[in-house]
Write a structure and sequence with these properties.
About 60% of the residues lie in helices and about 0% in strands. It is mainly α and about 140 residues long. The protein is elongated, with a radius of gyration of 18 Å. The chain starts with a helix and ends with a helix.
Length: about 140
């Protein structure tokens, strides 16, 4: 049985897919494309696109590249994102600030509570650095 046949048996509905890698594979298979085809049509280096379809990616996906892939697949970019990358895409700073303020904490208090420096909290809230996935899991309890 081919990989795409096994994959399409496993996932009949894209709403049940939780990882970006699996979502990319799902939609690629639905379009009957090879990784090489996606790379060529979107201008993404094949090695990079292939890495996007790897199971565990610790760093955020580049949204400019994923938007090209989403366009090729005919879906919204948000349909390709997992919860962590959706958090980043929707503006981590605003969400972190909302969490901190809902707890009634200053940046320093928030940082102390979770083991971060206030400087880091400030950088997150101003979208100057991206939060790591492991930190996101710690704060928001998702994966």
């Amino acid at each position: 049985m081919l990989e795409e046949e096994r994959f399409n048996i496993r996932y009949t509905d894209p709403a049940n897919i939780v990882t970006v890698a699996d979502k990319l594979r799902y939609y690629r298979h639905k379009k009957a494309l090879l990784q090489k085809d996606v790379a060529e049509k979107t201008g993404i280096h094949l090695a990079n696109y292939s890495a996007y379809e790897q199971e565990e990616r610790k760093i955020p996906y580049p949204f400019d590249k994923l938007s090209k892939v989403a366009e090729l697949f005919g879906v919204a970019i948000t349909d390709l994102l997992d919860q962590y990358n959706l958090f980043l895409y929707n503006g981590q700073g605003r969400q972190i600030r909302a969490l901190r303020q809902s707890l009634g904490l200053t940046k320093e208090e928030f940082g102390n509570l979770y083991g971060f420096h206030a400087y880091t909290v400030n950088k997150w809230e101003n979208d100057r650095i991206q939060m790591l996935k492991s930190t996101w899991v710690k704060l928001f309890g998702n994966e």
